[in-house]
Amino acid sequence: MDIAPLFQNKDKNELLEFLRQNAFGLLVSQGDHHPEASHVPYTIAEEKGVWYLYSHIARGNRHTHFLNEQNSHLFIVQGVDHYISSTWYDHENVPTWNYISVHVTGTVEIQTGEAALDNIKRLMDDLEPPEESHRSMEKLDPEMVSRHMHGLVAFRMIIENIEGAKKLSQNRDKKNRSNVIRELERLNNPQAAEVAKEMRNNE
Fold first, then answer.
1. pLDDT tens figures, 162-188
2. Is residue 70 within 8 Å of 107, Cβ to Cβ?
3. Cα separation of 104 and 100, whole Å?
């Protein structure tokens, strides 16, 4: 990710927590003639000091042909974002965009059998904790689960590098940052409100 030093987030614990709090991202791999990209659910876990990203895609997706274990793949998770009007400053300037994003790169391992089933169980357990949901993996019909498992390709990515961008008007003085927060909150827009909240949390 090419991001100005001022907007780089180098706090690994914060980046991992961001990934935990989200469950949907964009997998990008090099195809034969152009990059292939698929929007997929995911979860992350640490095992013996190594972090893994677990996910799956439909077996009929052509992207499956490019999950080459020798290649590096990119996984993008986008956080909140919003347009920042230059009219919100007390001086003439250009408009911009505030946003939070995390990029993960690494190699992938195709999973089959029990490993693939465990992959899907991890995601279900994260999103529907067994103690709270009647749709946990253990409570589903095994034959139905088996049929659906045939329709997907499970994989895990070894997280080799993680980069974060947190562009929240850090290049503005306190007065103009306050102006931006105020104007975002005035928009009565959930996305704008979330960006304003993140700006307040990072003051």
1. 999 999 999 999 999 999 999 999 999
2. yes
3. 14
Pairing of strands 8-9, 50-58: unpaired
* DSSP per position, 106-118: EEEEEE-HHHHHH
Q: Strands (DSSP E) along the chain, which ranges?
A: 8-9, 24-30, 35-47, 50-58, 73-84, 96-111, 152-167
Kindly provide the b/e burial profile for residues 55-80, where b requires at least 16 CB atoms within 10 angstroms of the residue's own CB. bbbeeeeebbebbeeeeebbbebebb
Name the token pair of 2: 């090419």
Backbone angles phi, psi at 75, to 5 degrees: -125, 125
Q: Distance (Å, rounded) from C-alpha 176 to C-alpha 184?
A: 12
Claim: this prediction has a pTM higher than 0.85: yes
CATH architecture of the domain with residue range 5-171: Roll (2.30)
Domain boundaries, the chain: 5-171
Q: DSSP state, 89?
A: S
